[in-house]
């Protein structure tokens, strides 16, 4: 028996890996295509798409497209803008949305159900369908700058950040997660005399690693991939994010190699952020284990 | 501080930091060429020349990527945030002028003498915009292929007729040497459809709208000529002579060069690239004549003055300065488009007599026709594109053209016949 | 004792203070613009126009939702025999004779065939004033009905797979998430050549698997397959997104519960059924709601890959709202579609909520 079990176990483990790898193959090929293509000259890139060569770094391989991409557009500026806007929005929205969700999940107050329903109802409104009215709204907001009080938020970072600091998806995500947490934790803290904000920040936040990580990555993606909105509200290059910058590469003769190089470059921060958050996932598994 | 709109404040501030001459009034200029280093270099050169040529005005450039340009400008217009000088795609100009976002140019008498008609943006008898260049389309072909299949090389005086063109396509298809006889570029879902295929309809005798009144498409887009065009158009696809709407972008760019397609309907901006690959064998042929003469579309990007500009005189001064022959020639050499005057053409590498693209100047002069000059064009173009896609994909020809006609008429009615605002 | 009771009582001040910042932002930037759009849908508002805006009542909605039914008898020759067309089917008078400038049928003026069916010799045509909108509506519903269950199920499977304790599992967690990270531009470019009608990867694969018996299909160019091609690609692209949400839900389930189940000798299925699934209740509600809403918002793939074609087979509500509101500058018409979409999804989610309510 002792001799059979390990072999059996090993076979099972191998099968698991085989399955993981097969499924992985289905998901990884766009990245391979993107990175491999970024190393090829345009003519070859397009010809290769008709065959398996699309996924192989063969032929005339070089980093030329990357140099050309930096020459064509201020890639660094675009990435900086996107990271700045995305970073502030992610941090701000994690705080505002988790705090609101905490109140929705744990506090009783009049009108709560209606307000929560209203917020969830806004999930229904696709951004594209209210982009123009939203433009009219931000265009009539006051702003205090070097010219004193002016109207309109166009051409700024704040117009790309503030409207997205609170959103229904993030609040909903936190509410559903918090509802699964044991109520006893809160009551114990309240018995110790903690104020509500302290219960939120000292008791709930520390044990909510996975949901913070999830909310962060989802928000990061949504913000980093913004296109229509920044296009509408920024007229000067100084404030443009990466997805608007992508349009620099679509010319009458599109340089596909440069497009791929640029996309590879701007995908790096997202991947890095995801990998960084995975550590948070792992760390939180440990803490949930202790909690349970 | 000089008078300026609050909204221009941010722009002004950023340039003030770079230390501009305070005596000059700033004029903002929006241009669609972001990402194109050559265009940028030429335009910046013109702006520098202008700024140092006089002491009243200082033009400041803001570039936008072309694919996002119209959306950006419309959004800025909604927000009341337009620059002094805008660049505008020719056929869209009447829409912006009608909507009150542009004002007529103040150019000196005779400033536009000798310009290709397609480079002059006229609406309601006023010149609103002017282009430094025009674009043209030709039938790309290989001389060796035509000779091998015993196909007559057409000229502007004697273009291919409808029947002749049809026979040629069938012959090329039947030879078995090509995936398709002709590549129309169906993958490109932008302005390409009305620009490239509208002229076929015109040559059949139809149009996207009745140009005598511009208040209905009835009879123009669904009359007998248009139906005949629609049937022919559909037959191209049912007979497998041309690739359909699902053609991939790679094939559009390399298919003709690689010999997958015998002919290609393409713009002059692909001329140099294709010449490099194909060499002397390459021919740029005129459009076929479907009954009302060979036609191609006219008008490309042009400069105009925004209605909200506080300094239309300065803006016009810049435009008047920019349309000198040497700049026309510089743009042509840089990006391969047709210079707007013959004098400028003579100064260019490609369009000078004997130059490799010279033929395009003649094609443009002889066949070019403007897309409908009306604010309704924006919707007409979209509906035309949809009808052509649907017909290519097997929709009933009459129904598809009726649908487009109704949609265009509904749009015109919704806008009070696009009557000019007073 | 009194303290414990207090914590269960109402706390309006703390509740409002903690929700206020998010609430104000949502009202200002989501509810406000939507109310504006709602208002536009009753006017003839244009994106840019010199004409004054006028109140037009419900006409935008009538234009979108107007339908009619017309039954036609087949054409008969002089002997009273039904005329057959080239394919041996009865031939009918042309619809356009009834729907265009026909004073006898003013109610059908400007309508077009949405779909039709035969009843005996006669053929019944269901006409719509705006067939593109109707197709967008049915396509969107079909998309939601397929994508919501399939995508949430697959996402859960993937989440379970990557929640295993295996060496190197992080690599797979990253790989499965890849399509979400990559720009839709790359995805669409790639899938265009996967779906290519001549030598696309999918056709090549199917030909290989069927030993050459498979006839290549132009997946995106064929009205019968285009929407399904979009559905396949969309699920592939977004499944990682929901996998991550499932994963965070999985990780709230205390490990001790699994240990207890192990001690009792539970099978993997029993562990899933009695430990995992009950622990995922709130996550499941969240996923279902989010996937449904996101599916209704289908836009980018259409915009980049098919533009609604071929033959309107991939039109969707949001795509049409954008085309009309933005490209055609008809913000009133686009807003009317948004309002219809909102009401539709609201009623569906109320039903969903009712069905998934906690039974006490």
TrEMBL record, chain A:
Gene3D superfamilies on file: MetI-like (1.10.3720.10)
Record keywords: Cell inner membrane, Cell membrane, Membrane, Transmembrane, Transmembrane helix, Transport
Pfam families with a match to the protein in the record: BPD_transp_1
SUPFAM superfamilies: MetI-like
Location(s) in or outside the cell: Cell inner membrane; Cell membrane
The keyword DNA-binding appears for this protein: no
GO aspect biological process, one term: transmembrane transport
Any one of the GO CC terms: plasma membrane
Assembly description: The complex is composed of two ATP-binding proteins (UgpC), two transmembrane proteins (UgpA and UgpE) and a solute-binding protein (UgpB).
UniProt function note: Part of the ABC transporter complex UgpBAEC involved in sn-glycerol-3-phosphate (G3P) import. Probably responsible for the translocation of the substrate across the membrane.
UniProt-recorded name of the protein: sn-glycerol-3-phosphate transport system permease protein UgpE
């Amino acid at each position: 028996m002792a001799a059979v079990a390990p072999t059996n176990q090993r076979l099972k483990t191998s099968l698991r890996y085989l399955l993981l790898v097969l499924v992985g193959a289905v998901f990884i090929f766009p990245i391979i295509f993107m990175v491999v293509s970024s190393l090829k000259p345009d003519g070859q890139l397009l010809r290769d798409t008709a065959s398996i060569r699309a996924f192989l770094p063969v032929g005339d391989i070089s980093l030329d497209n990357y140099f050309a991409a930096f020459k064509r557009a201020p890639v660094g500026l675009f990435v900086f803008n996107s990271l700045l806007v995305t970073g502030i929005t992610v941090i701000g929205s994690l705080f505002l949305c988790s705090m609101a969700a905490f109140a929705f999940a744990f506090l009783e107050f009049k009108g709560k159900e209606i307000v929560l329903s209203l917020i969830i109802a806004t999930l229904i409104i696709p951004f594209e369908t209210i982009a123009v009215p939203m433009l009219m709204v931000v265009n009539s907001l006051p702003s205090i700058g070097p010219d004193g009080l002016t109207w309109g938020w166009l051409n700024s970072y704040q117009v790309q950040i503030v409207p997205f600091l609170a959103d229904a998806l993030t609040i909903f995500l936190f509410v559903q997660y918090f509802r699964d947490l044991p109520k006893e934790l809160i009551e114990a803290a309240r018995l110790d005399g903690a104020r509500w904000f302290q219960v939120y920040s000292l008791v709930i936040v520390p044990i909510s690693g996975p949901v913070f990580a999830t909310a962060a990555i989802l928000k990061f993606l949504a913000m980093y991939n913004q296109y229509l909105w920044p296009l509408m509200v920024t007229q000067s290059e100084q404030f443009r994010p990466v997805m608007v910058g992508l349009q620099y590469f679509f010319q009458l003769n599109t340089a596909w190699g440069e497009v791929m190089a640029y996309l590879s470059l701007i995908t790096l921060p997202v991947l890095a952020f995801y990998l960084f958050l995975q550590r948070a996932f792992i760390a939180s598994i440990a803490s949930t284990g202790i909690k349970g | 501080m000089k008078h300026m709109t609050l909204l221009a404040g941010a722009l002004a501030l950023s340039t003030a930091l770079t230390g501009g001459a305070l005596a000059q009034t700033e004029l903002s200029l929006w241009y669609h060429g972001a990402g194109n280093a050559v265009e940028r270099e030429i335009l910046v050169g013109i702006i520098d020349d202008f700024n140092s040529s006089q002491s009243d005005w200082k033009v400041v450039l803001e570039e936008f990527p072309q694919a996002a340009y119209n959306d950006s400008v419309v959004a800025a217009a909604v927000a009341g945030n337009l620059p002094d000088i805008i660049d505008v795609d020719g056929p869209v100009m009447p829409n912006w002028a009608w909507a009150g976002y542009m004002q007529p140019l103040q150019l000196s008498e005779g400033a536009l003498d000798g310009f290709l008609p397609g480079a002059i943006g006229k609406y309601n008898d006023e010149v609103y915009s002017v282009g430094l260049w025009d674009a043209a389309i030709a039938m790309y072909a290989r001389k060796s292929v035509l000779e091998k299949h015993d196909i007559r090389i057409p000229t502007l005086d004697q273009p291919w007729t409808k029947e002749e063109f049809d026979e040629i396509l069938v012959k090329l298809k039947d030879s078995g040497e090509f995936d398709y006889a002709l590549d129309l570029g169906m993958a490109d879902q932008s302005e390409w459809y009305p620009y490239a295929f509208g002229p076929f309809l015109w040559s059949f005798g139809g149009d996207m709208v009745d140009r005598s009144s511009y208040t209905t498409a009835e009879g123009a887009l669904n009359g007998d000529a248009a139906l005949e065009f629609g049937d022919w158009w559909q037959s191209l696809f049912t007979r497998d002579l041309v690739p359909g709407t699902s053609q991939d972008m790679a094939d559009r760019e390399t298919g003709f060069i690689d010999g997958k397609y015998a002919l290609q309907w393409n713009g002059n901006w692909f001329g140099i690239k294709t010449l490099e690959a194909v060499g002397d064998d390459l021919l740029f042929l005129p459009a076929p004549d479907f009954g009302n003469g060979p036609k191609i579309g006219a008008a490309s990007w042009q400069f105009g003055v925004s209605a909200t500009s506080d300094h239309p005189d300065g803006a016009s001064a810049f435009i008047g300065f920019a349309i000198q022959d040497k700049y026309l020639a510089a743009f042509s050499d840089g990006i391969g488009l047709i210079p707007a005057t013959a004098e400028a053409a003579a100064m260019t590498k490609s369009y000078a007599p004997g130059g490799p693209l010279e033929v395009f100047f003649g094609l443009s002069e002889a066949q070019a026709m403007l897309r409908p000059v009306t604010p309704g064009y924006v919707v007409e173009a979209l509906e035309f594109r949809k009808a052509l896609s649907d017909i290519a994909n097997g929709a009933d020809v009459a129904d598809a053209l009726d649908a487009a006609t109704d949609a265009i008429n509904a749009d015109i009615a919704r806008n009070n016949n696009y009557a000019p605002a007073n | 004792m009194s303290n414990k009771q207090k914590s269960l009582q109402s706390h309006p001040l703390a509740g409002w203070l903690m929700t206020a910042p998010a609430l104000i932002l949502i009202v200002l930037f989501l509810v406000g613009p939507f109310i504006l759009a709602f208002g536009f849908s009753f006017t003839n508002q244009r994106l840019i126009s010199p004409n004054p805006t006028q109140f037009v009542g419900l006409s935008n909605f009538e234009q979108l939702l107007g339908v009619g039914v017309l039954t036609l008898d087949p054409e008969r020759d002089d002997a009273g025999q039904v005329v057959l067309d080239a394919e041996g089917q009865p031939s009918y008078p042309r619809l356009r004779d009834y729907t265009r400038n026909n004073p006898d049928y003013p109610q059908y003026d400007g309508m077009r065939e949405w779909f039709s069916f035969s009843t005996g010799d006669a053929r019944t045509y269901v006409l719509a004033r705006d067939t593109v909108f109707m197709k967008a509506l049915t396509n969107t519903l079909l998309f939601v009905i397929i994508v919501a269950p399939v995508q949430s199920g697959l996402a859960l499977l993937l989440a379970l797979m990557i929640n295993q304790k295996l060496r190197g599992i992080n690599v797979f967690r990253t790989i499965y998430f890849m399509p979400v990270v990559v720009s839709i531009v790359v995805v669409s470019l790639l899938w265009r050549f996967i779906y290519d009608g001549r030598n696309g990867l999918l056709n090549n694969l199917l030909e290989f698997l069927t030993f050459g018996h498979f006839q290549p299909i132009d997946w995106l160019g064929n009205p019968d397959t285009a929407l399904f091609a979009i559905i396949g690609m969309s699920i592939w692209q977004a499944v990682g997104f929901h996998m991550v949400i499932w994963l965070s839900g999985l990780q709230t389930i205390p490990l001790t519960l699994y240990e207890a189940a192990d001690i009792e000798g539970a099978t993997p299925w029993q562990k899933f059924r009695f430990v995992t699934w009950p622990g995922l209740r709130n996550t499941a509600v969240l996923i279902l709601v989010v996937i449904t809403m996101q599916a209704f918002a289908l836009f980018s793939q259409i915009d980049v890959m098919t533009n609604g074609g071929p033959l309107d087979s991939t039109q969707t509500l949001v795509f049409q709202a954008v085309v009309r509101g933005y490209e055609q500058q008809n913000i009133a018409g686009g807003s009317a579609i948004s309002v219809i979409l909102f009401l539709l999804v609201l009623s569906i989610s109320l039903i969903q909520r009712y069905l998934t309510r906690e039974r006490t």
